[in-house]
Structure formats: structure tokens, C-alpha cells
Design brief:
Strand content: 25-35%
Shape: globular
Distance between the termini: 19 Å
Number of strands: 23
Number of helices: 10
Helix content: 10-25%
């Protein structure tokens, strides 16, 4: 048997693997086409009949995972997704390649609140790109580039009192008619929509979105616990950037987040940059939400992701990025102290490394929060049947909290 260098030359067994959710060391069998065919405990390996051309890769107890899935990302490389037009479509493959190099297998471009015209142009451009990719390669072939899974609409159906950096002039009442106007002819590519449920006391809008197969996430909301519970009963299944743009937890009124934590099956997105939510409250939320069972990491990264700190345009305003945190202000002369927290420019897997460095999570849980939990939140399958070129190898340096990763192949 020879040491494996590629998952496609012959069948490959990857030995002594730590996998999130598995107690003992595992073996991954990768077939000749590079697809993960089987996962089994190491103690079963020596009972197998090995083919003569078998290749072996021993990862010596390191963690393996699929790449990250980012369900909330607003742009990258200086380009914001709400600004997309057909003439910009060449930016999408560049961003997809960049995110792949950041350890992200798939993502959902997020369109923050903007005008109806810009919503429609962006949706149409992303739809055209998705169709082009699907035509170019069969669904079974996974190129070394991040996949666009659909679109996340973060707005415009948000509570003005919790709009954060979203421009108030483009917010809309939550009605089925307004939903249809925003979606236009592109409802089939919208994967997630963030909305404030208290804006529609009838619940008709959530039911309509459910009928279209769109996941409803609650956020930028003043909803009480009872209003949130009603939304979950109607089919809402997620919460957008937990703690941010929603009422604080209170012992007599737990609010939207309190209701989400205790409601079965609801998943909460979390930004683990240490600025949007303090590490202490991240620790609290993860314990309450049973870690990857109820929480998933998002980057909420803005257009300057991949660029250095500095001042960048953002619609008619500007954002200033300092140490990876983005603040929005009306004009450059406004003091930063009066600015609104708008997002981050840290990649998704930086949140995994933060959680381990802060001592909040062990490596297993932290990795799962960015790789497995977001997949479960939108119903994507796990290891079996996936391409081995998606695998990440994680190493926790002995005696430290330094967690590093690289693509296995």
C-alpha cells in the first residue's frame, strides 16, 4: 500500500480520523471518483478485504470535516452582493474561489435591505450565475470553488426600531403582496429570508414563504417570546445573528431569543468575532442552545472581506473597518463613536478558531458549529456521498489553544 496524494487515483482509505459526533477514531473510504463512500470505526478496518490498488492516508488523530457553510455573508473582495448587476457577474466566480481558499464549501449570498430595483437586479444576476454553473458541470462534480446555495434576503421586512445599519427608507410592511414584489421571478433561488414576525399579526406571510420552500429566520425584531413562538409554530426555523438587533434576554420577558433557545428544532446564527457578542454571552448561548444542536456560526462578513482595514463605500454611506470590525457612518466626517456596528471582515472559520482560543469550546464542537450545524439548518446531507476535495484537516497544537486547518487534498 502507498501513501495517498490524491483521492481520485485509486480507492483511498483515510485512517485515524477524528470526526465531530464520533467517539472513537474513524476511517473514511473514498472511491476512485473521489466520493466519500463509507465511514466506519477504526477497529473494523482490519476485518476488511483491501483491494490491491488501495491507497492509505493516515491523519494521525487530526480532526476532519467538510468545509464551512456560511448562511450570512454580505460580500467579499470589495464587492457587496446587493450591488450586483449583470455586468458584474464575473465577480461571483472570483468570490467563490476566494471563499473556497478560506475553507468555505458553500455559502448563501446575503442581500441586506435595499431598493426593489436593486433586490431584483441582484437576484436575477445570481440566478443567471447559478444556472450557468449548473449547465457547465453535472451536480455530482464538485469543483474546487465554493458553491452558491441560493440567496439570503435580510430585509426589507424588518422592525424600524431594530433596523441596525439597514436604511429605513427601504423597509417595507410585511405583506404577501410586498413579498411577491421583492421576490419577483426569482423565488426559486431564495433560500432564507430574515423578517420581524410582529409586522404580520396574521402569520400569512410566513405561511406563504413556507409554501415556496423558503426558510424563515427571525431577526431585526422587537418580537416578544409569545410572538416568536407563534412564528415558530407557523414554520419559522431560524434566528439571524443571535443577540444582535433583537430585545435583550430578560428574566420576565425572554423575548425572541429566549423563545428560540427553548423551541425544538430552531437554529440560531451566531457571529463569533467577540465584538457582536461578548465571549461570556457566547458561552452562555452555546450552553443554553446545546452547541451545534441549536447554534450555527455565520461570518456576517461585509464587502471588504479579504481587504485590509480602511474606509470603504457602502451604498450611499461609508464603512470603516478596524481590526476586522466594520462600522457604518453617514459620512466620513462623522465620529466613529456615533457609528453603528455593521458587520465584520473576518472569515467564517476565524470564528471556530476564536471559540477554541477563548476556551469556550473544544475543537470538536467549534468545528461542527461552522461545518455541520449550518448544513443541518438548511437540510444538506453530511459526509457520505460528498466529494473528498471538500475535506478540511484540523490540527490542535499540543499544549495550546491554537487550532489550524488546511484542505486535505
Amino acid at each position: 500500500m502507498t501513501e495517498a496524494k490524491t483521492p481520485t487515483a485509486a480507492r483511498t482509505d483515510i485512517l485515524n480520523v477524528r470526526l465531530p459526533g464520533c467517539k472513537d477514531l474513524q476511517m473514511l473510504a473514498v472511491n476512485k471518483t473521489g466520493i466519500i463512500q463509507e465511514v466506519c470505526p477504526m477497529d473494523a478496518v482490519f476485518k476488511r478485504i483491501c483491494p490491491p490498488d488501495l491507497q492509505v492516508l493516515d491523519v494521525a488523530g487530526d480532526w476532519l470535516s467538510l468545509g464551512g457553510v456560511d448562511l450570512q455573508i454580505n460580500g467579499a473582495l470589495g464587492f457587496a452582493f446587493p450591488d450586483l448587476e449583470s455586468k458584474h457577474i464575473e465577480m461571483l466566480p472570483k468570490i467563490c474561489q476566494f471563499l473556497w481558499n478560506q475553507g468555505v464549501d458553500a455559502f448563501v449570498p446575503t442581500l441586506v435591505t435595499t431598493s426593489l430595483d436593486k433586490f431584483r437586479r441582484s437576484l436575477s444576476t445570481i440566478a443567471d450565475y447559478i444556472r450557468t454553473v449548473q449547465t457547465a458541470a453535472p451536480a455530482t462534480i464538485k469543483p474546487n470553488t465554493a458553491e452558491i446555495l441560493g440567496v439570503h434576503l435580510e430585509g426589507p421586512f424588518l422592525n424600524p426600531q431594530k433596523r441596525g445599519a439597514h436604511p429605513v427608507e427601504f423597509l417595507l410592511p410585511l405583506t404577501i403582496e410586498n413579498v411577491k414584489q421583492v421576490l419577483g421571478d426569482c423565488a426559486d433561488i431564495v433560500k432564507i429570508i430574515t423578517l420581524a414576525p410582529e409586522l404580520d399579526s396574521t402569520g400569512e406571510a410566513i405561511s406563504y414563504l413556507q409554501s415556496l420552500g423558503i426558510s424563515v429566520s427571525l431577526g431585526h425584531s422587537q418580537a416578544t417570546a409569545e410572538q416568536a413562538k407563534q412564528a415558530f409554530e407557523r414554520g419559522a426555523s431560524m434566528v439571524t445573528h443571535a443577540f444582535n438587533a433583537m430585545p435583550s434576554l430578560h428574566h420576565r420577558e425572554p423575548g425572541l431569543l429566549g423563545a428560540a433557545i427553548v423551541y425544538p428544532g430552531v437554529k440560531c446564527g451566531l457571529i463569533a468575532d467577540g465584538k457582536h457578542v461578548s465571549p461570556t454571552m457566547i458561552d452562555f448561548l452555546l450552553r443554553a442552545g446545546r452547541y451545534e444542536k441549536g447554534i450555527f456560526l455565520v461570518s456576517d462578513a461585509l464587502a471588504p472581506l479579504g481587504l485590509p482595514d480602511g474606509v470603504y463605500p457602502w451604498d450611499s454611506r461609508q464603512i470603516e473597518v478596524r481590526k476586522g470590525t466594520a462600522w457604518v457612518r453617514l459620512d466620513y466626517h462623522s465620529p466613529l463613536e456615533s457609528a453603528t456596528l455593521a458587520g465584520t471582515t473576518l472569515p467564517l472559520l476565524a470564528g471556530v478558531q476564536n471559540l477554541v482560543e477563548w476556551g469556550i469550546c473544544d475543537a470538536e464542537s467549534a468545528i461542527a458549529l461552522a461545518t455541520e450545524s449550518p448544513r443541518r439548518a438548511i437540510g444538506i446531507s453530511g459526509f457520505i456521498g460528498q466529494s473528498a476535495n471538500q475535506l478540511l484537516r484540523w490540527n490542535l497544537k499540543p499544549g495550546t489553544k491554537e487550532l489550524t486547518w488546511h484542505r486535505l487534498f
